[in-house]
Amino acid sequence: MGVNRDGTLKGYSLDVLSNTGAYASHGHSIASAGGNKVAYLYPRCAYAYSSKTCYTNLPSAGAMRGYGAPQVVFAVESMLDDAATALGIDPVEIRLRNAAREGDANRSRANVFTAQGCRSVLKRPENL
Predict the structure, then answer these.
(1) Helix/strand/coil (H, E, C) string of 37-81?
(2) Which intervals hold domain Aldehyde oxidase/xanthine dehydrogenase first molybdopterin binding (predicted)?
(3) What is the pLDDT of residue 50?
């Protein structure tokens, strides 16, 4: 993850290895979906995403909720927490600086954001 001293996210790279169990089932599509979904969070920076699935002797896995998002979002948010700590910036503030804004384009799909849900949720604790 690359971050400027002011907390502006410049880019990040994710290399995902997905355990799909003994059969293909959903492992491949879960790994692919994660790459598309994580692009929505911080669309104004560079990002690279690669994923591989591997067959193991474990039971087949599937997705319940968030289909591929929880794993990769956890990784990105953990890296962002580490960056905020290293820079001495509040973790909520670094997210507000970089979160998707209305009018931002999503790189993985041909659509534009029409709402600022992430930013409004991050600001909510300030008003309590």
Answers:
(1) HHCCCCCCCEEEEEEEEEECCCCCCCCCCCCCHHHHHHHHHHHHH
(2) 1-99
(3) 92
Q: What is the tens place of the pLDDT at every residue in 37-85?
A: 888 888 888 989 999 988 889 887 666 777 888 888 999 999 999 999 9
CB 52 within 8 A of CB 14: no
Residue 120 confidence (pLDDT): 76
The C-alpha angle with vertex 8 and arms to 78 and 84, in degrees rounded to 5, equals 35
Number of domains in the chain: 1
| pLDDT higher than 80, residue 124 | no
> Residue 40's closest CA among 80, 10, 72?
72
Distances (CA, A) of 20 to 17, 58, 82, 87: 9, 8, 29, 37
Residue 61's domain comprises 2-127
CA distance 20 to 11: 28
Instruction: Output the domain CATH number for residue 113.
Output: 3.30.365.10
The number of C-alpha atoms within 13 Å of 64 and in the hemisphere containing its C-beta is 2
